[in-house]
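ESCALATION

Customer reports they have been waiting on this structure for their group meeting. Please prioritize. Original submission:
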Amino acid sequence: MQILLGFVFGFLSSVGFGIITNNPKRTLIPAGLIGAIAWVVYIITGWYTHGVIMPNLLAAIVIGLLGNFAAILVRAPVNIFYVPCLVSLVPEIIIYNSMKNFTLGYDGLAAHGLIKAVTVGMSLAIGFVIAEAIASKVYPPFKKYLEKRRQE
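Update from on-call: job pushed to the front of the queue and completed.
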């Protein structure tokens, strides 16, 4: 049940943020599917790792790989898919709680939260770098194949 809800709300959050950021209509459904799949990967990985670093890393890799694939199919910039799909992974509640703890004088809790937020952000960035490295090797032959098929 949690996977189904994660899929639905991952889809809705990605499509909703795509609408807010004025993405082209033809990119909303692919972005929603990518965001939903990434959120399901996040949930499943979280069951086995009990942390936030590995789920964010793997979800970012999924977004990166599928985003590049969708960019080729839909003929749109890959950032159109990255931004709406990434929104649900950004550690905003961790940063909020850290700032709240800092203003209340709980410096130790604030520092712990900020370090956690930075590591989550780094895992997202590293996930995108890994995905781009894989995509740069895998997708050019796929792109050539699609161009050949479109000419026929």
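Sent to customer with the following note: The mean pLDDT is 89.
Escalation resolved.
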